[in-house]
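Hi team,

Filling in the usual template for the complex we talked about on Friday. All components are listed, including any nucleic acid strands or ligand strings, so the model treats them as one assembly.

SUBMITTER: L.P.
PURPOSE: interface mapping
COMPONENTS: two
RESIDUES: 1009
SEQUENCES:
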Amino acid sequence: MSLVQSVDWVAIAAPVIAALAGLALLVADLFLPPERKHLLGWGAIAGLTAAALSLLPLVGDHRATFCLTDTPDVCSYRADGFTLVVQLLVFGGAVLTALLSVHDVKETGLPAGEFWFLLLSSVAGAALLPAARDFATLIIALETASLPAFALVGLRRGDRLSAEAALKFFLSSVVATAVMLLGVSFVYAASGSLHFDVIADGLAKTDPRLETLATVGVALTLVGFAFKTAAVPFHFWVPDTYVGAPVPIAAFLSAVGKAVGFTGLILVTLLAFPAYHDVWGPVVAVLAALTMTAGNVAAVRQRADAPHSAVRLLAWSSVAQAGYLLVPIAAAGWSDDPSRAVGSTLAYALMYAVVNLGAFAVVAATGSRRIADQRGLYAAHPLTALALAFFLVNLAGLPPGVIGLFGKVAVLGTAVDAGLGWLAVVMALNVVVGLYYYLRWTAQLFREPAKDAAKVRMPRVLGAATAVAAVVALALSGAPQLILKFADQALL
Amino acid sequence: MNDTAMQLVLAAIVVVPLLGSVAALLPAPPGLRGKSPEQAVLRHGVTVTGVVFVLSLVLAAGFDHDHPATVQADTDISWIPALGIRLHLGIDGVSLPLLVLTALLTFLCAIYSYFNKPEGPSATAFVALLLVLESGMLATFAVLNLLLFFLAFEMVLIPMYFLIARWGGQQRTKAAWKFILYTLLGSVIMLLGFLLIGIKGGTFDMVALATDNGSNLSRSVQLIAVLAIGLGLAVKTPMWPLHSWLPDAHTAAPTVGSVLLAGVLLKMGTYGFVRLVLPVAPDAAHTYAPYLAAFGVVGIIYGSLACLALARTGAKGDLKRLIAYSSVGHMGFVLLGIATLTPTGLNGALFANIAHGLITGLLFFLVGALKDRTGTTDLDQLARGALYGKAPRLGGLLAFGAVASLGLPGLAGFWGEMLAMFGAFDPADGLSRPAFLAFMAVAGFGTLLTAAYLLVVVRRVCMGPHSGEVPKLPDVRGYEFAAWTPLVVLTVLGGLWPAALIGLTDPAVQKLLAGGR
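RESULT (copied from the run log):
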């Protein structure tokens, strides 16, 4: 019997390509003259696209690799439907982020080689994460995704806000990781394994004397993920981090960073801790209710003319949306078919990634981080204003934002199905609160422009990013089944 | 007409306004530029709503009037299988009249706006919003899937919000927010009810659910779901005490907005009760019927008293607000009719729906015209008017609208309220007859109050001391005649020939009550 695990290179191609592309760009940066550094950005986009394309052979296939040599059905890496959907989200979000960044890197003088290397490293980690089926892989993936992100947030040299944001993000994230590792070690002690499958079996028949240890381990692991997903009460880093970071990085954190946290949470709750669903189900439900309420209340209080109000509002709204994303996971704790319930989280996360990146794209394109500066945008840039309005009504979940509406319907459906009536009502009330600030912003776009408003020129590449997001969002509104089908099948 | 053509016509009725709305945002093609971009886009609005109105007439003509209880022009296409949402469109005797009324009122509004440009930002946006609004309203009456109904129900919110917030009068921002937040709150709660029914009943299809007649739903599920759905519909209707968004919204909205709010949007609520609650959850409907009736009659009395208070001398009452409160009263009759759960009451409710749409639409048009001429809707200022002397035709029409609204026999307002009370005289089996007799008596008293305040309004606005030197107001203009005549004619026609409408609704109502069989 061989002691060396076999490696299925096709299955792991996507994260590997992203990582290699990152390294290649870092090296290429050394040899490129400054005036041609912008090529690095296009190289990154090409690398990300190649990585996304490498997913194609895996569609409809279930592959597993890095399996234990003695028990070949226990594997560390699985490329199944769930993995592919999350990887699609990660690469799609990353390509849009890269499009946004091309302009930013050039204009603000960010160090190009480092920037693209860090971004692609983070993407590689995020792409690895959904495939992880043991705690070691999971945590390595999580840290690979997070560590470059700290640096990206703090990359604006000489900017006090940027440095402060990075520090805040770093400290809270490191605390989260530490707590999570403690939890994982407890779970390991109680179950004797790091592989999710084995843990699930082990926890189902724990020695009664170890039960407290196991419960504490489960709870601490959840706390760690609550940090990553910015669930209340671990959400305070979000607004400051988004404001301090370059706009594309804030967009990246909101779409991809968030997806990473949720993926991890889904994996550990459904695969590793199914026996403890009566522990994590109620915990996640309460977290969901608190998170959406706190996010919405804070977002309502944002004033349009405050500095950075647009980014700050999107930050708080992302906290609120995180609450919605938690609802199906909580519902999975009660559901007979938990992996179907979390499909709604995936569908909603895909929708949210598209429209939120779109909204960030417009913020970046107009070059103003205040909502008040976008007053009368329709008069100056009608198409951009219509696109932003469309993104915002999708976030609010009202027609014509059909996909936003049905995304929320799918999420609410899981709560109703699981008998979580109170959570459904809390979410319904929150949707109303959310409408208030999204629509208030939308209304600004169509007002008379301020008299002293200077006409902003929009960089073409940012316009393109907006257009891509708008076209995808429109297509999804016409054919919501494209992503809502994930809400109807067991992917895991 | 064959079935495919009918399906296409119905689909076109929903889709054409949407396409028209997108087209309104594009620059006009050469040849259609008109005198100015503004004129061109307003004309575009008239054209599109006109086409939709003609299509609705075609649909009504092609409708098989011998079988109004069957769903016709039935289209059923899969759209989002993951959520069980199918593009299921169809009409029967309940929805057809409302569909035609909607198309008619929107068309009249477009004509009115063409000649009387809305005061506010660009006409392009106005037309685009009006068309989206129309599409949403028509879709509400045409769809037969619960979640699609919810989509249509929500689709009217954003256009109406902007119509009020941008083209409205005083206090418009606050009124617009109140309108959208209040109704959204209602409708998301309603969505929870829909989801509960869909998940427990296994389908979101209204026809299938009506045929099951609640047999797949346990009693407690029915009770919870109907409570949630009823809340959403009651906000929209509006039912006392959930009506407080309505007076503000109607008062602040531009004329066209008020006409459509009162004429169509309120009907979406009562239509929902008839279409969804009664057949899908009959047990719960029985349980809640007395409460619905009670809230309805309280609304009648409350609306009438509020109107009386507004109509007093020196109360600084706003005429628009008064008509808005009168809607609360009229919708109270509709709710009472529905709550009787009898064919008589339901027919009355549906009749009153249409009649209220025609008459209140007309009244809001007239008040808008008064405001254009005098610059105010304040009753105390209008009271010095002696409208009969200054603008006899306008005064005559206002008096006509008022007496139609108070339910004068021979006009459309009479039959609906009479039938609703008649239904309450003998409610469905299992409902407490004494309670409904009491409701009927209270409602009857309400008609007296209604007559009182409307006659006070007529006396104060139209009549008055004749003083020779008051400047004359311009009387009814040509385009105003064009916009109002259909409403007047239909009001008279509905009063003299109610069978035309009841013949359509009665078989459909019987079927709904019998559980879709």
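MY TAKE: DSSP finds 20 helices and two strands in chain A. The mean pLDDT of chain A is 90.

Thanks, L.
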